[in-house]
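Dear colleagues,

As part of the handover before I leave the project, I'm documenting each prediction I ran so the next person doesn't have to rerun anything. This entry is a single chain, and its sequence is reproduced below.
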Amino acid sequence: MSGASEPGNGQRSEEASRRAYVESGLDLAGLAAEPDEIAVIEAVDAIYGPSLRALMAEGFDEIPHEPGADMSRPPRTAEER
């Protein structure tokens, strides 16, 4: 544990910060969750979070979207559009 997250120095632990983040997000959405529900949210984030954050960091903003995309078919090439 680093000095910044040790109890008694005015800083939240990483776990407390994560829990506060989840609870504040739920509050913004007008939702309430019991501790066991928050534990499930944290477990799901532990499993999928790193991959999702890596995907979001890739910056796909410069890839043009496919107008009229049909999600039941594979993406069309630029020549097929």
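Residues 11-58 form one domain. The chain has a mean pLDDT of 82.

All the best with the project,
I.
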